Amino acid sequence: MTTMPHTILSERARLVLRPDIQAMQAYPVQDAAGMVKLDAMENPYRLTPQLQQQLGQRLGAVALNRYPGASVEALRRALALQARIPQGFGLMMGNGSDELIALLAMACARPGACVLAPVPGFVMYSMSAQLEGLGFVGVPLDAQFELDRTAMLDAMARHRPAIVYLAYPNNPTANLWDDAVIDEIIAAAPGLVVVDEAYQPFASRTFMGRIAQHPHVLLMRTMSKFGLAGVRIGYLVGAQPLIAEIDKLRAPYNISVLNAECALFALEHGDVFAAQARDIVAQRSALLESLAAFAGLRAFASEANMVLIRLESGSALGERAADTVFARMRARGVLVKNVSAMHPLLANCLRLTVGTEEENRAMLAALKESL
Asked: Which end of the chain has the least Cβ crowding within 10 Å, N or C?
């Protein structure tokens, strides 16, 4: 009997799967094979051969036959020490920040509850809310990608969100918002506020020193931008009683022993990764300086390891200049992120990850040829 490939969802599956899931699009991951990969805000540096050998030997000694235990707890303590969390505050880990965002939505999924965040912003805030049955309220930033204070306060008063997300810096705009406005939002929030510091290694400010003043504020970070995107470690810091409640939803063994050991190894060599972050910040400055000389585009200031640029739609490239330039750069072997369809404020915008000096040079050359 010949088995035919199934290319259409079966009627039985269609009847039982949630209609909103069937209508969704999966999170897109671009094929980067053979490309200069500058689309996902990754640290461009790999471990030195010496550190690779040391890590390989260490991973080879891990007890893979046992469930995660002591090494995961050791990593939790090491992260708390490295992040300098305040006395009386707790830390829980997730399989990247994505899992933590999903757990927060699950924890707050009461009937009629909603999540609120400035837009454009990180897509997982809205996606996780939808998956857990919460509403999502997106409050547009202003034309300069700053928080609209009045709109944020009005939206919170009207919708009474269970969670307010504030990315610090924001993705994909890469800017740090005004602290005074953030303080007003935190004071007015009826529920939890999550300050997402995914890009903290490259930013000039952090909220960590102020979190102790706010028992309803959670601070979220990831080791992905630290240099371990493939290891998938995110962590959430907050008042211990609040962390304890959210931690009840975490799967018992959500962090693998291999991932925990990799992260511990990285923290033990924190000076190497700190030097990489300093170099990325220096490369960001050089990239912004080079982009300032390009006619037909605007590069926005950045506090992250990415730079947002806007292309002039009135040029010979037409009204969809970002689509044209993105395709031309890809044809030249350089992959960036076309964010122009994410939100009207991002019309004709591309997001460029800051890479090594060599990668940035290749990106600038491809961009120049594509304009």
From this structure: N
Structure confidence by residue, pLDDT tens digits, 355-368: 999 999 999 999 99
Residue with tokens 């999966």: 26
DSSP H stretches of helix in 161-204: 179-188
Other CB atoms within a 10 A radius of the CB of residue 163 amount to 25
Confidence of residue 23 (pLDDT cuts 50, 70, 90): confident
**Tokens describing residue 68:** 């995660």
Cross-strand pairs, 36? 334
Amino acid identity, residue 114? C
Instruction: Please list the residues that pair with 195 across neighbouring strands.
Output: 166, 219
All structural domains of the chain, each given as residue ranges with its CATH number in brackets, are 16-45+272-370 (3.90.1150.10), 65-268 (3.40.640.10)
In DSSP terms, 221 is beta-bridged to: 235
The pTM for the full model equals 0.93
**Helix segments in the chain, DSSP class H:** 11-16, 19-23, 49-60, 70-83, 96-107, 123-131, 149-159, 179-188, 240-247, 257-268, 270-291, 321-331, 357-370
Q: How far is CA 254 from the centre of its chain?
A: 19
Task: Identify the DSSP state of 337.
Answer: E
Whole-number Å distance between alpha carbons of 228 and 262: 8
17, two tokens: 């799967």
Q: Which two tokens stand for residue 102?
A: 């999903």
Which distant-in-sequence residues (6+ apart) come within 8 Å of 121 by Cβ? 138, 165, 167, 170, 171
Q: Give the integer Cα–Cα distance in Å for 90 and 84.
A: 11
When pLDDT is averaged across residues 186-195 and rounded to a whole number, the result is 98
